[in-house]
Design a protein that fits this description.
The chain contains seven helices and eleven strands. It has about 240 residues and is an alpha/beta fold.
């Protein structure tokens, strides 16, 4: 059996103390990996349904035969790995602000690291996703101005619950309009949220994109003994 608790890495970052830890859950009989930023949980390997749904729902709305995809936020890698499960995906760029998180995957410290780093379609890029979204050059340092078929984002807890104030402008009408210009005709924007659907945010998306909707993702939380609702927002530009 694994140790009950083990801190695998700890780093000070510009947005707070980052830690990766593994604990053995005696109740569930399994190891759980967790990423924390300060006192806040960023991700747990015990709860991945909505991260996986972000990839599957986003790709389902894409019309391209070989879509070029950007994932904002690497985390434990579930969204990116699910994108790569689709053999038709042409390319994937994963943008993360934190060198440490990228290093955990490249060094094989996380189980999905080898999946991502061994796939020639996938590149891990260190950068500020929100700054890149606002810039003309976009997300691919090798191809400035490149247009994408899908941009899937899992960074903040929710549009109104941010990890850092620096991303606040992204969720405004101006910020989302800037993001939309990086999509090809018919391209899809997907956003993960830790909260139930927010009609106001869906309405904001609908004012910018040709179509917008919120997809609830419901799953069981055995620790709290209840069902949890998170959200994947989906919006597409005109074809």
């Amino acid at each position: 059996m694994s140790p009950i608790f083990e801190e695998l890495d700890y780093r000070e970052t510009p947005i707070g103390a980052l830690s990766l830890r593994r604990r053995h859950d005696l109740r569930l009989g399994e190891d759980v990996l967790e990423i924390k930023l300060g006192d806040a949980f960023l991700m747990s390997s015990r709860f991945t349904a909505s991260e996986i749904a972000l990839a599957r729902l986003g790709l389902a709305d894409v019309t391209s035969d070989a879509p070029d995809v950007v994932v904002g936020g690497l985390g434990l890698g579930y969204t990116a790995a699910t994108v790569l499960e689709d053999a038709g995906v042409g390319s994937l760029v994963v943008v993360d602000m934190l060198d440490a998180v990228i290093g955990w995957h490249r060094d094989g410290l996380l189980p999905l690291g080898p999946v991502l780093t061994s796939d020639p379609r996938c590149r891990l890029v260190q950068g500020d996703f929100f700054a890149l979204a606002a810039a003309d050059a976009g997300f691919d340092p090798d191809r400035p101005g490149r247009k994408l078929d899908a941009i899937l984002v899992d960074i903040d807890h929710a549009p109104e619950d941010l990890l850092d104030d620096g991303s606040a402008g992204f969720y405004t009408t101006d910020g989302l309009t800037a993001l939309a210009r990086h999509l090809k005709p018919g391209g899809v924007f997907g956003l993960w949220s830790n909260e139930p659907p927010d009609d106001a945010f869906t309405g904001r998306l609908a004012g910018i994109f040709a179509a917008a909707r919120a997809e609830p993702v419901v799953f069981d939380n055995p620790y709290q003994g209840n069902m949890v609702t998170q959200t994947v927002y989906l919006a597409s530009v005109a074809a």
